[in-house]
Q: What sequence folds into this?
């Protein structure tokens, strides 16, 4: 099976590529991204191609020529970035999705498109947020995610397209740099503490949000897609999480390991509003029951690994 990752130059894609190669073979994975410089970098590790996912004809040619059997559609403008240009966010996020769905239908591909905790809103229960609940987001990013879940389910029930998705929490990574998301503070802090010993946080100290370390996020992408279809009651989209913490708790864990670290808060009103609308913690029991989801990284081992790996980068 040949696998295509669209939007491969983002935070998830750059680490998903080698993960997929380790499971399915290097020659069976193709990375596609809009930016030429990104594709040049990706070409060092994978078969790579420049692709505008909004150009359905170029997208179709790529899928057909390479006999693609599975697509990971990772194209998206993230939450804080999307609020600066809602029309662009809608055009990019939904345009790439509808093209992916149509080509998955045409070529009988399975399709993974990540959703997010951004799909929830103020009216959603914030503690133990259920799998099936009210979804009224207050960001264009969230609106796109809810719309994407509904549209993906429609293509499954109407056309039989094998669509699957997870609602990712904030993803913490020691690989790609943050890309304009509300949970980016949980990555930025490690770089700043190791470079300068100080971090100024844009999120209020007591705001809880679900988080996940990248190795678990990668497993979620592939474990769900490899799960037997007959076991899936839900499809688009599963709650998945690994840990929930607020900035104060994360910074305390860092300070335990880096005693000289200092922190202060300068709240970003946009990120404050967005983060306040998201769950404190999600109930991911459906993912656990239907396809065996089980995270391996929690706060303490994540902090240890981030300090070690980012420390290597900072010292170069």
A:
């Amino acid at each position: 099976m040949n696998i295509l990752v669209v939007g491969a130059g983002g935070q998830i894609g750059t680490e998903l590529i080698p993960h997929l190669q380790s499971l399915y073979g290097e020659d069976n994975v193709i990375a596609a991204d809009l930016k030429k410089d990104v594709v040049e970098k990706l070409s060092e590790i994978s078969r790579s191609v420049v692709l505008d996912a909004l150009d359905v004809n170029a997208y179709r040619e790529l899928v057909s020529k390479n006999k693609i059997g599975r697509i990971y559609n990772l194209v998206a403008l993230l939450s804080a970035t999307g609020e600066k240009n809602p029309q662009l966010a809608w055009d990019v996020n939904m345009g790439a999705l509808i093209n992916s769905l149509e080509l998955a239908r045409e070529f009988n591909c399975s399709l993974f498109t990540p959703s997010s905790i951004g799909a929830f809103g103020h009216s959603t229960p914030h503690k133990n947020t259920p799998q099936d609940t009210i979804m009224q987001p207050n960001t264009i990013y969230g609106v796109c995610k809810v719309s994407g879940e509904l549209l993906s389910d429609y293509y499954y029930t109407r056309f039989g397209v094998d669509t699957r998705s997870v609602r990712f929490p904030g993803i913490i990574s020691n690989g790609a740099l943050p890309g304009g998301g509300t949970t980016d503070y949980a990555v930025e802090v490690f770089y700043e503490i190791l470079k300068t010993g100080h971090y100024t946080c844009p999120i209020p100290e007591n705001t809880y949000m679900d988080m996940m370390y990248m190795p678990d996020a990668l497993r979620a992408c592939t474990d769900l897609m490899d799960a037997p279809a007959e076991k899936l009651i839900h499809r688009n989209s599963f709650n998945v999480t690994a840990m929930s913490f607020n900035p104060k708790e994360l910074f305390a864990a860092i300070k335990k390991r880096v005693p000289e670290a200092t922190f202060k808060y300068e709240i970003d009103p946009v990120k404050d509003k967005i983060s306040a609308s998201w769950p404190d913690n999600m109930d991911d029991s459906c993912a656990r029951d239907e396809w065996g989801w089980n995270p391996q990284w929690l706060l303490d081992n994540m902090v240890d690994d981030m300090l070690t790996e980012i420390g290597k980068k900072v010292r170069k």
The CA atoms of residues 76 and 205 lie 28 Å apart.
